[in-house]
User: Which sequence fits this backbone?
């Protein structure tokens, strides 16, 4: 039984346990549904055409069973239809057993095993839940919609510790596990074209620390670190004749090297600093991300090349105001640069032939959410963008045609229970 | 003539609005209740927030906390979040969504009515909830209206 089969088997086992007990005491269930309307007149957004699209909807169904004060099972099914990135087929979002081995008033600690949500920043664990944040999308500058499969959850374990004492509240989460990628966004992110082989499994380990000082308990300070690694599976097998043809092609067109990659490993190390302050009906949030990306074990036509590295930088600042129980208004500024040594993407364009504007993105977003019923809300947001890094990922768009200046409008109806 | 009446009508509108506001204030008297086994507890605003944010899981005597809440379209729920927690109802809902939809915690148990809230808190050791004392009879020896700081 390989690693993937083993994790599928244990997830299935936990699912059976959970389903068998949904009607028992201590069981809770819930869910959410959302339908979006995207109007993107300048660039294609999640699919290959500009204009209006209704191809953005999500359905989540959650169940939990508290066996006793120490033991709990929880799971969630998720179906997402997002343009050409996600086809809506149901997936297990998380399915876990949570065992709390230390439960005191001021100290608690435990472990979650199964498919667990990755602790990363303020919004990652609930990035798909519309009512769990302001806005339709989580800030792309640090949460990368295209990489959600890799960041969302992992098959493994999550140790947690919560401490409370005179100097404040401290929470520590450790995670180790394997995430699965169901599309080829990594290839398109790195090379803007399909290459032989796939990046399918992502090994993740890291931690998140969150702290609220006693003197200012409405302030939350956080730091998340994720050490990520993925390698190219089923890379090209190249015959001697193809090898010779490849070498002569590369002599004339060095940019074609991506077609001849026979091995590579991508290892990003993410460091995310988070700040959130609640003051009455205002919430101020800012996060700053640095990613050291290393591409190692790179072979082109079986010829080993030197490791390549780049430093990504992303940040955002966001203000939300909730003037009444029916209304929330928000504004956000954000900025993402894939390589701080190549802020305008020109070096990327020379090396890969890709579109330089896909290497950075600056955006201003303003929006409003109307809770016309406590369980229903309608959100509308407008975003002005310069640079097209937020569009990277889909495999069927014309990257060369992406425009630097582009805007989009999103309306989203959401319901939760 | 019309002009001279304008300030008067404006004043009447403002007074009317204020009167409604005052009437609104006195139409509910939300109190926090705990199961009488916890009656020694005095709750600060911060402790109350930790209880309803599902962060405080045990009382100081080791009894597990059980939080009850009214449906989120209930006016007393809105009064409670605004008065005691200084937040909008959807802000508190968001905290619960983050726990439930990430698999990291549970949300409070929702009870249908104020009477059901009273009965649940009376019957559950370690329970905490809230009621409008103008709408229910608090003369229940198993329920203790706690001195919570707004």
Assistant:
């Amino acid at each position: 039984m390989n690693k993937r089969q083993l994790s599928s088997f244990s997830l299935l086992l936990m699912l059976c346990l959970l389903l068998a007990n949904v009607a028992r005491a201590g069981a809770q269930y819930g869910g959410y549904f959302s339908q979006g309307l995207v109007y993107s007149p300048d660039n294609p957004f999640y699919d290959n055409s500009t204009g209006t699209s209704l191809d953005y909807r999500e359905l989540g169904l959650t169940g939990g069973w508290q066996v006793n004060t120490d033991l709990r099972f929880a799971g969630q099914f998720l179906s997402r239809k997002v343009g050409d990135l996600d086809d809506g087929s149901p997936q297990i979002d998380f399915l876990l057993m949570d065992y709390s081995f230390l439960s005191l008033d001021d100290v608690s600690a435990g472990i979650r095993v199964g498919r667990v949500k990755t602790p990363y920043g303020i919004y990652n664990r609930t990035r798909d839940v519309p009512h769990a944040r302001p806005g339709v999308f989580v800030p792309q500058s640090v949460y990368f919609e295209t990489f959600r499969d890799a960041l969302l959850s992992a098959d493994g374990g999550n140790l947690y510790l919560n401490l409370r004492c005179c100097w404040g509240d401290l929470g520590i989460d450790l995670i180790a596990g394997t995430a699965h990628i169901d599309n080829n966004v990594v290839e398109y992110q790195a090379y803007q074209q399909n290459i032989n082989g796939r990046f399918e499994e992502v090994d993740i380990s890291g931690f998140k620390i969150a702290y609220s000082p006693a003197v200012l308990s409405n302030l939350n300070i956080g730091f998340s670190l994720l050490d990520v690694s993925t390698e190219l599976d089923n890379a090209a097998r190249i015959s001697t004749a193809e090898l010779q043809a490849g070498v002569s092609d590369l002599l004339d067109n060095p940019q074609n090297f991506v077609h001849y990659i026979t091995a590579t490993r991508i290892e990003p190390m993410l460091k995310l600093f988070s700040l959130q302050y609640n003051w009455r009906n205002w919430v101020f949030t800012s996060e700053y991300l640095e990613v050291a990306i290393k591409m190692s074990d790179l072979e082109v036509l079986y010829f080993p090349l030197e490791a390549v590295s780049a430093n990504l930088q992303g940040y955002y600042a966001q203000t939300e105001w909730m003037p009444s129980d029916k209304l929330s208004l928000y504004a956000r500024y954000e900025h993402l640069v894939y390589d701080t040594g190549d802020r305008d993407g020109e070096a990327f364009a020379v090396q890969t032939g890709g579109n330089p504007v896909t290497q950075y993105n600056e955006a201003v977003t303003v929006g409003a959410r109307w809770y016309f019923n406590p369980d229903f809300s309608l959100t509308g947001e407008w975003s002005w963008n310069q640079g097209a890094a937020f569009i990277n990922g889909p495999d069927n768009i014309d990257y060369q045609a992406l425009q630097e200046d582009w805007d989009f409008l999103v309306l989203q109806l959401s319901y939760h229970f | 003539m019309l002009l001279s009446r304008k300030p008067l009508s404006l004043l009447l509108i403002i007074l009317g609005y204020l009167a409604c506001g005052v009437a609104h204030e006195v139409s509910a008297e939300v109190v926090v209740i705990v199961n009488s086994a916890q009656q020694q507890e005095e709750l600060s605003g911060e402790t109350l927030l930790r209880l309803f944010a599902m962060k405080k899981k045990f009382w100081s005597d080791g009894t597990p906390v059980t939080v009850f809440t009214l449906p989120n379209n209930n006016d007393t729920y809105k009064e409670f979040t605004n008065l005691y927690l200084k937040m909008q109802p959807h802000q508190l809902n968001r905290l619960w969504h983050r726990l439930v939809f990430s698999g990291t915690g549970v949300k409070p148990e929702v009870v249908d009515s104020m009477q059901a809230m009273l009965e649940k808190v009376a019957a559950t050791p370690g329970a905490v909830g809230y009621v409008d004392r103008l709408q229910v009879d608090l003369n229940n020896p198993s329920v203790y209206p706690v001195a919570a700081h707004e």
Confidence is low (pLDDT under 50) at residues 1-26 of chain B. Chain B touches chain A through 31 residues (CB under 8 Å). The longest helix of chain B spans residues 2-26.
